[in-house]
Write a structure and sequence with these properties.
The complex is a heterodimer of chains A (268) and B (239). With 268 residues, chain A is an all-alpha fold. Chain A is 85% helix and 0% strand. Chain B has 239 residues and is an all-alpha fold. In chain B, helix 3 (128-159) packs antiparallel against helix 4. The chains are: A mainly alpha (268), B mainly alpha (239).
Chain lengths: 268, 239
């Protein structure tokens, strides 16, 4: 309160006033101090709460971290166990497959051993037969193969009637006619009959014989030619038959030799 | 009278409770995490153990199956071996090469070729001597016929009171002589023709027999080779 206002009042009152004023001032000071203390307290409370909150948060984070570590360790352990299990499983499967494969291989070897034993029994026989078959062609050669097949090789004449045969036949025919003509020439003439007449009669017979000899020679030539052609055709059939036989035998022999090789090839 | 508790104390208490709660919650989370970890590990261990057990069972089963298959195969092989032994033995007992009719005859036929001579069909159907005899017989027959004819002519002339010595008689006798001569010529030629033809036909027929024989031998050789081939094919089929 301004001092001018205070003037005019009693001292007691003034004193009371001063006391009141002092009291109120003190009250105000106390209030201010209390307010300040309250603010300080609230501030400290807040600070403490904040500290605790931070501390709790740190603790929570730490806890979360620890829990995460725990979970991670567990996960790691699980993964490690899984990995070990996978290794063990793979090992077990591999061992089983290896054992099964060995069993199958042993079984397969038994098959192969059996096949080999059969092969060892059969193949020598087939090889021996193949060796023998190198002589298969011997029959082909024994029956005339490998050489020209001709009438001469079969022991057949080249002609049905040779030129010599024909000449001999004609000569003999002519000679026979000539001998008969000589007999006519020397035939005794009957007495008292004109020899010219007899000569004419007998000469007619000689002429007939001469004609017979000439025509006979011509006919023999034709007959010989016909017989030769027939013979060539007939004998050619025999040559063809032999060639066909040998050709068939040769072809069959080659096929039979190949069949033996095929039998050996079938053993592979 | 209610006990007065300063607010600061209350705050402290509240904070203490909060701290306890936070600690408890953290502990709970920790315990839960530990429990979950333990549970997870136990479950994982159980799963892995089960997987290993299953793998072991599977492995044993597969090995047992392989052994069973191998045993079955051995049984089959034993059976096959038994069958092979029986069949091979039977087939071997019937090897055609052991039979005489399947022997190689090529050396024999090389040394003994099949010819008309070897078949007993050699030579000619008529020998030159036989031909000569036939001709002589024919000529003799013509002479006999001619002589008989001429006797008949003379007898006929005489019976008619005619002279033997006449042109008619000469002509008739001459005709008879001509006929005889012509017949003799023809007989000789015909016999010659027939002999040549008979010899020719005989040679051709004989050679046909030779060719038939050769064809038969060739067929026999082919059959022999085929039989051996078939037998070897049969053996081959056993492997």
């Amino acid at each position: 309160m301004p001092k001018a206002i205070v003037a005019g009042i009693s001292s007691a009152a003034y004193k009371n006033y001063e006391m009141q004023a002092a009291y109120e001032a003190a009250q105000r000071q106390r209030q201010i101090a209390a307010d300040a203390a309250e603010r300080e307290y609230q501030k400290r409370q807040a600070l403490e709460n904040n500290r605790l909150s931070i501390q709790n948060s740190i603790a929570s984070k730490q806890n979360d971290y620890n829990n995460s570590v725990t979970a991670a360790k567990a996960s790691y352990q699980n993964s490690l166990a899984d990995a070990k299990t996978q290794i063990a499983l793979a090992q077990a499967r591999a061992n089983a497959e290896l054992a099964s494969a060995r069993i199958a291989a042993a079984s397969s070897r038994a098959d192969t051993d059996f096949a080999k034993s059969k092969y060892d029994v059969v193949s020598p026989k087939i090889n021996a037969a193949i060796g023998d078959s190198k002589n298969y062609m011997n029959m082909y050669y024994a029956l005339g193969g490998g050489r020209p097949i001709t009438r001469g090789s079969l022991g057949l004449a080249e002609n049905a009637v040779s030129p010599e045969d024909l000449a001999e036949k004609i000569n003999r025919y002519s000679a026979s006619a000539g001998a008969a003509m000589d007999r006519f020439e020397n035939m005794p003439r009957s007495g008292g009959v004109s020899s010219a007449v007899l000569d004419g009669l007998i000469g007619g017979f000689s002429s007939a014989l001469l004609n017979d000899a000439v025509s006979g020679a011509a006919k023999f030539g034709i007959d010989a030619s016909t017989a030769n052609k027939d013979y060539l055709i007939a004998s050619q059939r025999l040559l063809d038959a032999r060639n066909q036989t040998l050709s068939g035998l040769r072809s069959n022999t080659l096929n039979n030799q190949s069949a033996l090789l095929n039998s050996l090839a079938g053993l592979k | 009278m209610a006990q007065y508790v300063p607010i600061s104390k209350l705050n402290d208490n509240i904070r203490a409770y909060n701290q306890q709660a936070v600690a408890a919650a953290n502990q709970y989370q920790t315990n839960l995490a530990n429990y979950q970890a333990m549970l997870s590990q136990q479950a994982n261990a159980a799963q892995n153990a089960a997987a290993l057990r299953a793998a072991s069972i599977s492995a044993n089963a597969s090995i047992a199956a392989a052994n069973a298959a191998a045993a079955a195969r051995r049984y089959q092989l034993d059976y096959d071996k038994s069958r092979f032994s029986d069949v091979y033995g039977s087939i071997l007992a019937n090897d055609p090469r052991r039979r005489p009719e399947f022997q190689d005859m090529s050396a024999y036929y090389a040394a003994n070729p099949i010819t008309r001579d070897s078949l007993g069909l050699g030579g000619d159907y008529y020998t030159p001597e036989q031909e000569r005899i036939l001709i002589n017989q024919g000529v003799a027959n013509t002479a006999k016929i001619g002589a008989k004819d001429r006797r008949a002519i003379k007898g006929d002339i005489a019976s008619r009171g005619m002279s033997y010595e006449s042109p008619i008689l000469t002509q008739l006798l001459g005709k008879s002589m001509y006929d005889q001569a012509k017949s003799a010529m023809d007989v000789a030629a015909t016999v010659r023709d027939n002999v040549l033809k008979a010899n020719r036909d005989y040679a051709l027929a004989g050679q046909q027999s030779v060719e038939d024989q050769v064809a038969g031998v060739a067929a026999s050789e082919n059959a022999r080779q085929q039989a051996i081939g078939n037998y070897m094919s049969l053996l081959s089929s056993l492997v």
